[in-house]
Write a structure and sequence with these properties.
single chain, 112 residues, mainly alpha, flat
Amino acid sequence: MNIFQSAQPSLFERAWLTLRYPYDIIRNPLDALLSIPALSFLIIPTFSSYSTSLNLLFFYVTWSTLILSNSPLKVEIVGTLGIRILFYILPAAGFLAFDAATPNLAAKLKEH
């Protein structure tokens, strides 16, 4: 039993946790996204002449690193949100911005 640990957090600790909570909400998904070794997955295989089996090995190592360094729930939630944002929200926002910025051109393109 630790005699220095109080039963309830002090006022300072509660204030610190309250201030830190929004930061943790933003930081934790970003940590999961940035922990993916994007260079080894996306860029290095495109500039090299590695065989397909070696590229599959790179993908396996990258995927294993991602899965072992994050909890399954975090991978599921951040992965789902990332795919939805990348392939649904961003294109929809782009089309909406195009419609809002140039309504006449957008109407002419939609007529054809």
